[in-house]
Specification:
This is Anthranilate synthase component I family protein. By secondary structure, this protein is of the alpha+beta class. Helix content is 28%, strand content 33%. The protein has one domain: 4-Layer Sandwich (Anthranilate synthase), CATH 3.60.120.10.
């Protein structure tokens, strides 16, 4: 399923609803007596919100969600990076670690935006590499050379103070950075307020008819308005040993993750390191597929893959422990998954090219990239800056960046 982002009319038409989301080309809106779930990974508390009441109902978001995914119910929202509490991750931040709306019935369609993946040059040179990023990069390099990790996704958070309506921010981002996994979430509930605005190019998992497919992205170069330079960047992505090694490491990790829940011999790689081009970047994308074992449902598969290997590195658990030491702030929703899950199917994107707010005018943006022994600190810092540039632009200006 290709997701379609809601345009300004689609987002604004539900602006009065306390809880609604736009995902998979559909708007899911909850009435007061419908249910939503939030999760605080630090306190290990799952809270159920309905009819103006909120109560703690468990300590594991996956178990509580499983109990609620009955026939005809679709969970729509995000699972943040720290939602697997059996894995090492910092928790906390401006919004809950997970927000999921439990929708019933047939959601309405929303306005689609054009998938105009034309090249746009990055306009701002990156600032000098800050000392804190250089120190984190050095810590990762030490672990890489010691053999503790083979590839690490090093990220950080930046904040922007902006008096912009979240629905308008989503409309701007959808126009400026169209991507197949664009989405919007509003959870305007006291004590658990969260807005997520995103336009992600990366498929976390599509699960339907007993099959699971994931499309990890590892390897990114910028687009350029000059056709010759743009083609050079795409060719560099296809041939550079660093990009290819990053992608291969994550591909092997995803093959392993899928083998946990799939029938033996069914995990395949239909596309290895294909180049996909979007408005602001070229991406190196691999497709990994497998048939789920009998008795394994979509939620089981989503948990087994969590968090996305492209956002951790390999080996997963040991690299996540390194990330928790090297990164100074919790990732929150960033690097998790956003989309829809039901008892029969799921369709989720990785939470990248996204921003969150608690509705207080302060927006948090996550950005970063994969680090290997071949990585250069200045190049990696520059990549993290231009990945965030378009989101910063839609928050800080009334006009979409070009």
């Amino acid at each position: 399923m290709t997701w379609a982002a809601g345009g300004a009319r689609g987002a604004a038409s539900a602006a009065g609803a306390a809880r609604y989301a736009i995902a998979a080309g559909r708007r899911f809106e909850l009435a007061d007596d419908d249910v939503s779930l939030t999760f605080d990974a630090g306190r290990r508390e799952v809270t159920r919100h309905t009819d103006g009441r909120s109560e703690v109902v468990g300590d594991d978001i996956w178990d509580v969600l499983r109990d609620h995914l009955t026939e005809g119910v679709t969970a729509v929202g995000y699972l943040g990076y720290a939602c697997r509490t059996d894995l090492p991750a910092l928790s906390g931040g401006d919004v809950p670690d997970a927000v999921l709306l439990l929708a019933t019935g047939t959601p309405s369609q929303v306005v689609s935006v054009s998938e105009a993946y034309g090249p746009r040059s990055h306009s701002q040179p990156p600032p000098p590499v800050p000392a804190w990023y250089a120190a984190a990069f050095a810590e990762v390099q030490e672990a890489l050379h010691a053999g503790d990790t083979y590839e690490t996704n090093l990220t950080y958070r930046l904040t922007v103070d902006a008096d912009v309506d979240p629905a308008e921010a989503f409309a701007r981002l959808s126009a400026a950075n169209p991507a197949p996994y664009a989405g919007f979430l509003q959870h305007d509930i006291p004590g658990a307020r969260a807005w997520l605005v995103g336009s992600s190019p990366e498929r976390y998992a599509r699960i339907a008819d007993g099959w699971v497919e994931t499309k990890p992205i590892k390897g990114t170069t910028p687009r350029d308005a000059d056709p010759e330079r743009d083609e050079h960047h795409a060719r560099q992505l296809r041939t550079d040993p660093k990009f290819r090694s990053e992608n291969l490491i994550v591909t092997d990790l995803l093959r392993n993750d899928l083998s946990i829940v799939c029938e033996p011999g069914t995990v395949t790689v239909p596309i290895l390191m294909g180049v996909e081009s979007y408005a602001s970047v070229h991406q190196l994308v691999t497709t990994v597929r497998g048939r789920l074992r009998a008795g394994i449902g979509p939620l089981d598969a989503v948990r087994a893959l969590f968090p996305a290997g492209s956002m951790t590195g390999a080996p997963k658990e040991r690299t996540m422990a390194l990330i928790a030491r090297a990164e100074q702030t919790p990732r929150g929703a960033y690097a998790g998954a956003f989309g829809t899950i039901s008892a029969d199917e799921a369709d989720l994107g990785v939470v990248i090219r996204s921003t969150t707010t608690a509705g207080d005018g302060r927006w948090t943006i996550g950005t970063g990239g994969g680090i290997t022994v071949r990585s250069d600190v200045a190049e990696e810092w520059a990549e993290s800056c231009w990945k965030a540039e378009r989101i910063v632009g839609v928050l800080s200006s009334g006009r979409s960046p070009v």
